[in-house]
Every structure is written in C-alpha cells, then in structure tokens.
Amino acid sequence: xxxIQTIEDWAWIGWLVLILLFLVIEMLTLDFTFLMLSIGGVAxxxxxxxxxxxxxxxxxxxxxxxxxxxxxxxxxLRRLRRGEDPTPSNVxxxxxxxxxxxxxxxxxxxxxxxxxxxxxxxRAEPSFATLALEPGTAVRVSRxxxxxxxxxxxxxxxxxx
Length: 161
Description:
This protein is of the alpha+beta class. The longest helix is centred in the middle third of the chain and has 27 residues, at 54-80. Helix content is 47%, strand content 19%. A five-stranded mixed β-barrel has the order 1-2-3-5-4. The protein has two domains: 2-80, no CATH class; 90-156, CATH 2.40.50.140.
C-alpha cells in the first residue's frame, strides 16, 4: 500500500516526463499525434495537482488525448497541408509522361526517351508484352519500378492495323 501511495505522491514527475517525451517525439515527427498526447498529459498533470487519484488521472489524460486526436488533429493537418504544391515530383511525375522508343522495347528489354529528355531502360507493360515496340513508336509511361519505366503504346489503333 505504501508503494501505491508513493507513486501517487510523485505522479506529477511522471506526467512531466511523459509530456516532455511526447513533445520531443512531436518535434521529430511533425504529425500532431504526439502533440495531442502531450496535451492529454497536461490534463493528467492538472488532475493530479487537483488531487485526483492515479486511475482517474490516467482516464482523464486518455480521454482528452483521444478527443483531441479525433477532433482537433484532422483540421490541423488539413490546414498545415493546404499550401502544399499538388504537382507530382520525382518518379511520380514520370507516370503518364509520353516518349519515343529508342531501341526495341519488349517484355525483357528496351530503351525510351521521355518527353522531358530523360532516357530510361524500358519494358513493355504485361498487357502489351507480346508486342515489340519498334524505334520511333510513341509510348506513354504507365509505372516506374526501380530504374525501369514500364510503357504502353500511345496509340493502340496503329498497332492493331
């Protein structure tokens, strides 16, 4: 019984350590989750200073943190990301980009020059794997896997004719 009383007497130190730990993690992640947990810890600390038993402090901290994560965090994230540039970058920007075949593209090998000037190792998409895309054929990038662009013919009517 004395151990529980000692823990309750010094719980405020535990709350301070928990709050500081959550704030440090929040500074590293910048995701608002640990900020909400630290505010829940502040509520637990406040209830400790007002004389609540330890079990009630934990319940108050958990409820406050859960409400903040569910109610306050989503609008904060939307507001934070409101000014982001929606333009895809890096590899994401290459998907959908057109180009021309430099060396015959098959299911196993090939090379394309994209409209942005980059030259990529290329493979035909599985649905076009039976075709050999000859040099000069217009293609479009459907996905990137590592350093390989998977392409499909730009105009499938020309291929069937």
